[in-house]
Amino acid sequence: MTQATNPATVPAAAPAQQEDDLIFRPSPETTLGVELELQILDRDSGDLAPGAVPLLKVCSEEGLASVTAELMQSMIEVKTDVCRHVTEVRDQLVPVLRRVRNLAGSLGFDLAMAGTHPFHRTNMSVVFPAERYERLVDRLAWLAFQRVVFGLHIHVGVPSGDLAMGVTSMLVQYLPHLLALSASSPFWQGVDTGLQSSRAALYRMLPHAGVPRHFSKWKDFRSFCKIMRECNALQSFKDLYWDIRPRPDFGTIEFRICDMPPTLPITLGLVALTRCLVISSLRLLEERPHLRSGDTRRHWIAVENKWLATRYGLAGMCIRTPGGRKRRLGQDVADLITRLLPIARETGDHPFLAALQPIDKFESGAARQRRIYREAGGGKTVVDDLKSAFADGLQE
Asked: What pTM, to 2 d.p., does this model score?
């Protein structure tokens, strides 16, 4: 996906431009775009290393335009173009990731994927030298250095703004499921947080983050953005760091809930599952248009369920009904995947769901990191395992 400039770091657009960026550019098909945030590691210590500047320089020389900077110099982002299915996502990502890994190695760096680094001290992080990031640090102050976290962002095309709102309202109930499957950030600055996703907890501290507001129609979302701009709380919809948000410029819904999983197969499995969720919701909304207005209770319950997924992952209990009926999240995920398998077979994405099954044998990134740490007794061993998992996922 093309990376747009973050409006939080540039002067406010003129009113006409602001209105234009809220025109939803429809996607007639459920196309995909995926963004991976990778860790740059010092080869000897295993700590995060400020290697983005030299690495991006050689990537540019090699014509890798899909590799871009992130807030800190210990991060890079690798993104796809618009893809028709998950196989195309894989076929775009694998050669780029192999080349980036080789280029990083030539500079003395390693790469890995996870939601956080096991022992990095964030006061040692270095901001990427770009004006927009410097302005972001000025705005967020200390909070900017709690953003040394790494996520997986998945875009899925939808036909209209109203449907984007309808699908979002339907799918907030499944944000905890995606978080629990992707959870890979149990450690923060060398401490076992007791959480499955410390990234989710840290990100919640940012303004305009977390479970999105409820909007019945696209015009309600537009009105929200207009009001927030007029009071200078936002400069653009891209200042909204919600777990799921519309991207009118791309004609997509962007899922931002996921930690960066430790392997490419799990990543692709989550992409397949997310797309199936959107397709299922679009079909239901076509059959029952009255559901487009959504149900605010889903949003209320999603906040609590997200916390339960953050804390306990797949082992947690989730609230399934406004009446308070609960169920183990892992079982709910297993049933969800089974329910969506017919759609995955239709699209040809079903082989990728195998990385998430069976749930009773699925080991999340967080669980694996804890197991490795307890077996070996050190964060360096966890990092070595993350590097190996990343490399193994790029094998034929």
From this structure: 0.93
